[in-house]
Amino acid sequence: MTHDSLVTLSAVDARRLIGDRSVSPVELLDACIARIEAINPAVNAMAATCFDRAYDEARRAEAAVMHGESLGLLHGLPIGVKDLEETAGVLTTYGSTLFRANIPDEDNAMVARIRAAGAIVTAKTNTPDMGAGANTRNDVWGATGNPFAPLLNAGGSSGGSAAALATGMLPLCTGSDTGGSLRIPAALCGVVGLRPSPGLVPSERRELGWAPLTVSGPMARNVADVRLLLAAQAGFDARDPLTHDTGYTALAHRRPVDAAKLRIGYTDDFGACALDDASRATFHAKIDRIARHVGVCQPVSIDMSGIDRCFDVLRAQNFVAQFADTYQRDPSSLDPNTRANYEMGASMTLGDAVWAHTMQTTLYRRFQALMQHYDVILSPTVSVTPFPWSQWHLEAINGKPLDTYYRWLGLTYLVSLMTNPALSLPCGVDHAGMPFGVQLIGPVRRDGRLLDVSEALEAAFASDDALRRPAPDLEALSKPVPELRSIVSSPLLSSDR
Fold it and tell me: What is the pLDDT of residue 490?
């Protein structure tokens, strides 16, 4: 197979072909690295790379196949790991100048699980400084451009992973999500991102171990590949207070769903979130098409008053827990977004925290009462079409100023607070010709069911020109673009850092 045909394989197909000796892990890695070298200069999706080590692991993976050894779920598959996740022996900067030379001694729990399943960590993927914000740019690696228009925002904070997937650099990538960091870049780049239920993918590094707001999860070009990666990521780990194990079978095996029998509720803004008028019109046009493929597709309404302040408080707690020591030593060492979030949290009282947790509980119960009537609830994933990455954040929607840099993420952070699993599914393009994603919200703690429904809808979308997943112009991205020199990889982007 040619390099181009290898990188267009789904992860599921690549793993099957590796297992039956039709594709060598070394050949697949060769193809991925060739694509990275050809396309990454245009979008700057990668942070550190570890190509030499990856080749060593690919050769060992090939030998294991030839010797008939037992193979893991991800055996021989190259993977990108978001630069917020610690990787043993590979530079992990968190997008921060404080960690320019940080090479961890150990993989974190999630990375250890995917490597044990046979995945070959090939590169770290770019993220904003400390993951703060939905525009992937930082002072270590620069900005990640959208694969469909490299001067525009790829989303964040898993923007490097989304751009790498959309351009075929890697078949699988990891991400993490507090207010939408898996779903937003997936939507803006035309790939699939799943925010799993809290505790499904273990984390031993959260300072607030009992807090369900931040999760790690899978990204890929289709739902089946997301399912494959999630099955390897998920599992019990006693170091995570929220950990639980739904079992391999519940995640890894699809249960066929007839799209024509699905009951779908939809909302454009939950009655509470800012949404650009053009994106609202795009969403309703998509709903008109989606309704043709399902049994029931009807609008829903719900009172989510107080959701913004609730998120402000609960999110700020994370920043206080994570950055108190750094702030006390040198506030200027923190990125402005990170510093502002810390200061917001430090100014809050116990009363603020109690109110926020009480409000979250009230809204959670209200949302679950609505959810029980539907297979999934749909909304737009993102409130606007991609804006230039040179603009740090969105300042206004429909001419109305936003009161904080992350308020345009309300459609996703609202769902984060509900703790339901949620997936961004590519749904054609928007009014500007850029990828458009719909957010599918599943029943609480039923990630497998959400994946089943998502695969059924993905198959239905593939038969509809207005809904199928778009693809970027790789030929255009492979040509030198002088004006993009400001986002090409930094000098730290090198093999085996």
Answer: 40
- What's the CATH class of domain 3-487? alpha beta
Query: How far apart, in whole angstroms, are the C-alpha atoms of residue 493 and residue 164?
Result: 15
DSSP alpha helices (H): ranges in 375-473?
410-418, 447-462
Q: Hey, what amino acid is at 280?
A: R
Q: What is the DSSP letter of 99?
A: G
Instruction: Indicate if the alpha-carbon torsion angle 111, 112, 114, 115 is positive or negative.
Output: positive
The conformation of residue 144, written as its DSSP 8-state character, comes to: P
Cα–Cα distance for residue pair 259/459, rounded to 1 Å: 9
The closest alpha carbon to 118, from 74, 88, 79, belongs to: 74
Tens digit of pLDDT for each residue in 169-210?
A: 999 999 999 999 999 999 999 999 999 999 999 999 999 999
In sequence order, what are the residues at sequence separation of 6 or more whose Cβ sits closer than 8 angstroms to the Cβ of residue 16?
none
Question: Residue ranges of the domains in the chain?
Answer: 3-487
Tokens linked to 92: 């992990």
**Mean pLDDT (the chain, rounded):** 95
Which residues, in sequence order, are CB contacts of 20 under 8 Å at separation 6+?
Answer: none
Q: In what order do the strands lie in the sheet with 263-266?
A: 46-49, 120-125, 78-82, 172-177, 215-220, 192-195, 422-429, 435-441, 376-380, 263-266, 296-299
Residue 38, classed as helix, strand or coil, is: helix
Query: Cα separations (Å) of 488 from 42, 95, 108, 356, 392?
Result: 7, 15, 28, 41, 18
pLDDT tens digits, one per residue of 450-490? 999 999 999 999 999 999 999 999 999 998 664 443 444 44
CA 274 remoteness from chain centre:
21
Structure tokens that stand for 383 in this block: 């409130």
Mean pLDDT, range 403-425, rounded to an integer: 97
Give the tens place of pLDDT for each residue, 119-166: 999 999 999 999 999 999 999 999 999 999 999 999 999 999 999 999
Distances (CA, A) of 268 to 180, 280, 367: 16, 6, 15
- Phi/psi for 377 (5° steps) reads -110, 135
Q: 5: cis peptide before it, omega within 30°?
A: no
**Backbone torsions φ then ψ of 303, nearest 5 degrees:** -85, 110
pTM for this entry = 0.96
